[in-house]
Amino acid sequence: MIRKEINKISEVGKALISVEGNPGVALNHVVELLEANTNQSLSFAKAINITEDSTRFQVFNGTQGLSTQTKIRMHELPLSAGFSYNMLGRSFDGVGNVADNGPEIIFEKEVSTRLDTLNPTVRLVPKQPLWTGIPMIDVFNTLVKSQKIPIFASPTEPYNRLLSQIAQGAQADVIIFAGIGLKFDEYQYFKEQLANSGNIDKTIMFTHLAGDSQIKGLMLPDVALGVAREFADQGKDVLVLLTDMTNWSNILRNVANYQDQIPSLQGYPGSLYSELAKRYEVAADIEGAGSITIIGATTLESLEDPVPDNTGYITEGQFFLEGGKLKLARSLSRLKQQVNGKTREDHRPIMTAMASLLADAEKAYEAAEVGAANDAFSQKLLRYREDFISNMEEPFGDSIELEDALDKCWNILKKHFEPTETGLSKKLIEDYWNKK
Amino acid sequence: MNDNSKRTGNLISIQDSLVKARFFGEVIMGETAEVSVDGKILQAEVLQIDTDPKNKEAGIVEMQVFEDLTGAQIGDSVEFKGQPLSVLLGPGLLTSIWDGLQNPLYKLSEQGAYLAPGMKAPALDEEQLWEFTPLAKEGDEVSGGDAIGVVPEGRMEHKILVPFSLGKCRVESIVDKKELNITQEVAVVLDAHNNRHTLKLAFRHAVKSPIPFKERAIPSQPISTGVRVIDLLAPVGYGGTVGNPGPFGAGKTVLQHSLCKYALADIIIMAACGERAGEAVEVFKDFAELEDPATGESLMNRMCIFGNTSSMPVAAREASVFIALTVGEYYRYQGYNVILLADSTSRWAQALRERSGRQGDIPGPEAFPMDIPDQIKGMYQRAGADHATGGSLTFIGTVSPAGGNFQEPVTQATMDATGGFWGLSQDRADAKKYPAIDPLVYTNSVYDSFISWKDRNKMLHSLLEANDIDQTISTIGLKKVPVEKYVSYQKGQTIDFCVMQQDAFHEMDACTRPERLKVINDAVQQLISSPIEFSQEGMEDDELKELIKTKFDELRQWWRDWNSTAQGGELINELPAKVEQFIKQEEA
Questions:
Q1: Alpha-carbon gap, residue B523 to B77, rounded angstroms
Q2: What is the structure's pLDDT at B588?
């Protein structure tokens, strides 16, 4: 097939180029940039803004080295991602090119990266718990298959360690790792962890390292999720690890800025919410097919920053990591009530009771700082708080089964309180307080 | 348009969901258009009309396209439809689940699991037969909004109305009692200009022109929502408006789901606007198995859902809220009490923000369009009670303020526009107190409650006092707080813990009806107004306070158990007895 070629590049900017007039390209379709004399392929680019006078492209490999002489070859197709079971165990870049030293892959098919919305009627209401062996998740914020949930943490927290710990225990057929703006050692860490846990053969890594072309980072989730969706359509349970979506949002912000878009908050485009939602909403339990669960990482300075703030409204809860601990107060699994009513009868009540006591304890802790927690109950609360933080909020360590974790909860309550102080019903107290 | 010749144009600019086209002849502001892209027909709406600097004969029209434009090219053709964005109104609306443009999602799923651009299906079932009984006869004079017949829709009577766009007409012919589908002719009417109009069971109505009231009235009847803090302290009347802001994780969704399940109304319309798809799915898949509290039928029989969820095209979000509002007005006009839950109005406002940004408008605060407060007010104004029809449309909109900050433009404008306000607090949510509606901050209502204003104020006052004492305890310690203050503190805490908080997932505790509310209120008022004597001879204040706490802890445990177990008159009346006993400090 002979493809149309032109050379009318009029503007070369950061990550974007413009072409004079209308070369006949369609919105979101891909073109290839070629060195004028040698016809060597320099990069691909995507048409994002078309008028009869000019056309603008996002350049996947960055614009360094491009000139007004660079040739443009039309491909007349939107960006697709190659799909094959041979991708398992391999590494790719943000647009799906092989990025390890292994052989090229012959793809079975090309899948769309447009991420069309799944018809809601085809979604199943998620009902299957995913156990992690981490009490703060299993007891207090149970994870559910097809959930979309990020870890919120400041950049210095061990969020990637937590992400990889959750991934290691995950009951998934396929793990898709999507890393955006990663440092090399983070990438290497994940690779080693996945290898050590014996999961590498069911893992596909899509990686964009800090300093790589921004557009490749921007495209990465769409390519990774497009591939994940194909596995799910074929009946597989897929776990997608997205880290770090703050890096991705920052690229989005940069590119919006290059495009002269009007910023809304802190320079992010007004579409930040929709853009994040489009990716996270790929998580689904699909009727008659498989499922996609997304666990992400969102680094933040403050919870009010636009990226965590918008993410919180999109995802089905968040795990909040602070001081190396998974904090109960700001963590939430929105799907937990789909599953935690079918475990042990004391699961829900004890979760509520402990949370409510912890909230009182936090108040007592603040009061203690000004010397105002001098009554006996406040002292109880303070001891409880300490116990809770070191025993229940610790995410790293041996894996604990749910029943054992619940027993542990009762032991902590018994150690610090009288039965009526817990707010638990008489019946539960009778059944569990003096058990064992 | 009487002109039968097609009016067309061609694309000259494409950016995200915004396109420009060159046209010759006439284009009408706000009319819909169809853009042909790659063999698919995409829906669009005219936003602005300009002159063409390149061609004096032509004009340039700016449009938003409601579907993904991937593959669109310069020169693609546009056909203008002459009609503004509209919704199909008729029997079969109830139990339906649509996308934001009224495409039925179950029908679309027959075309594939994913929603691709250009997918379409008739808004209402065209096969289903309805038993039509005429109310009008040949020669009758009718005008827009008059009923010419009825069909049964579930257990409701669905009036077949003359389209509101028609003026005075005379009925030329009307079918006898028979079974019809929505595509068949029901009647022919002749208007004042001798134009014939064929009426069917369903008609289209423009979503931006409100269906009128017959006789607008102030909302006077409180709605039993089943949520105690709402029904006691921040009630909403049939036809009222409420803004429900809260940071993420504060419990907006759980509250919306509670209202769906328990609020007493004939019809609940859910506009899932830019929110998680999973939440809408839970409603139409799981709630269908629950009972309507009024009729005992499937909950879905009283519902319809517009799901323009967060990953669907942004441009259709604005449309989805207006479509839902129009359906609500239609049923209000028929005399039904309708509650519209819009989740979330912030996503709707953001859709306007994205659009105005692309259009290059000069932005207002936080880049929202400058007129956003007026647009929000206009939207809430479409709710209301109708004295003449006996129907009402209640609008409960959630607000998702950026950063949980209630000072942001959409929350502020909503506060200004609504009669009730349910502010969810991060602190209460963090303490896992549900609902996290904070009765002391940003929560208010102009509507009548199930209890008197006096009782309402006493309850609020007790909560406020307890809150103040709590602050004092946190700053100077419990030791320095006088015993009687400590008792007031415990009283307020008891009201908060046993009345304001509720378990949304407990079969019984999740919903409290007015009869029970009355018993609770009596007990609360008694507890607030009665002095309680705890003092025992020779006891130090510290010890006494511990004793008081233990006693109140016991009462609270008992009360919580009562909330989740006591059913039937006798058991219900145990509460006032228990409280009285507590006040006298008698042994049980």
A1: 70
A2: 47
pTM of the model: 0.93
Its sign, for the CA torsion A213, A214, A216, A221, is positive
Which of B220, B216, B331, B314 shows the shortest CA–CA distance to B273? B314
Question: Six-digit token pair at A310?
Answer: 């918008």
Strand partners, B40: B37
Q: Is B508 on the interface with A (CB under 8 A)?
A: no
Q: How does pLDDT run across A93-145, given as a tens digit for each residue?
A: 999 999 999 999 999 999 999 999 999 999 999 999 999 999 999 999 999 99
Query: Within 10 Å of residue B183's Cβ, how many Cβ atoms?
Result: 12
Would you place residue B1 in the very low, low, confident or very high pLDDT band (cuts 50, 70, 90)? very low
Q: ipTM score of the complex?
A: 0.91
> Worst-scoring range by mean pLDDT, A80-94, B163-177, B466-480?
B466-480
For residue B246, CA distances in Å to A261, A390, B269, B335, B467 come to 29, 31, 21, 33, 21
Task: Name chain B contacts of A79, Cβ cutoff 8 Å.
Answer: none
Mark which residues 29-88 of A lie under 8 Å from B by CB.
29, 48-52, 78
Q: CB-based contacts of B148: which residues, under 8 Å, 6+ apart?
A: B134, B135, B136, B142, B160, B161, B162, B171, B174, B186, B187, B199
Q: Which of A111, A95, A104 has its CA nearest to residue A213?
A: A95
B chain contacts of residue A303, beta-carbon cutoff 8 Å: 403
- Out of A431-435, B355-359, B388-392, give the one with best mean pLDDT: B388-392
For chain A, state the CA radius of gyration: 25
Low-confidence ranges of chain A (pLDDT < 70): 1-2, 436
Hey, which bits of B52-180 come out as E strands? Answer: 58-65, 77-84, 86-89, 97-98, 114-115, 130-134, 141-142, 147-153, 156-161, 169-174, 178-180
| Contact yes or no for A93/A206 (Cβ under 8 A) | yes
Mutate to test the interface with B, among A420, A421, A428 (most CBs of B within 10 A): A420
> Nearest C-alpha of chain A: how many angstroms from B191?
43
So what's the pLDDT on residue A371?
A: 84
* A314 vs B contacts (CB less than 8 Å): 276, 310
**Confidence (pLDDT) at A2:** 66
Residue B398's DSSP bridge partners are B244
As given in the structure block, the two tokens for residue A223 are: 């390519």
Handedness of CA A180, A182, A188, A190 (dihedral sign): negative
B71 touches chain A (CB under 8 A): yes
